[in-house]
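Class, look over these structure tokens:
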Amino acid sequence: SRLISPDPENDDGFTLVEVLVGLMLTAILVAALATLGSQFRTFLNANDQIERAVELDKVARKIAEVIEQAEALPILRNDSSRDIFLIGKPDSVGFVATLKTGVQTFRFRDVSIHYIGRDQLVMKVGYHRPSTATEPKAESGDIDLRTGNLEVSFRYLESSALSEQSLWTESWNHPAKLPRAVSVFLTENYP
């Protein structure tokens, strides 16, 4: 048996130093890619939160736009509360509003906005006329304002002409009187 001696002219493999340098460069590239991947995930999460915040802002603006159109007119119901202008609860509000119904046509409409659990915010718009139902009859069905992990609450500003103090309440059903302001709290629970 003969021993094979290394031949300096026949270099078919890598030296240990070359293998270690290659492994080190590979480790540096993997670490850089992992950092970029983490930053990209953070960017996507921030982008999703911004999109949800913009959508939530649109819902808030729509609710504010409709509530600003509330009129000092009684909600037409078939019970004894015929002089109630606004019915407010922590999870819903109902009132008469002047809404655009055509190109240049505005009409009185019964409007109610309901928060249904953690997943739905619905606005009903109906004709403003006496009916047998206690809820407004929808003209074109319910309008889903928002679905998702949403929490909504309404508060109503009551002020007395005798004093300058204002008081926020969680419900409103004062006869022949609109609240000075309606506060809508919209909060989205991020997963």
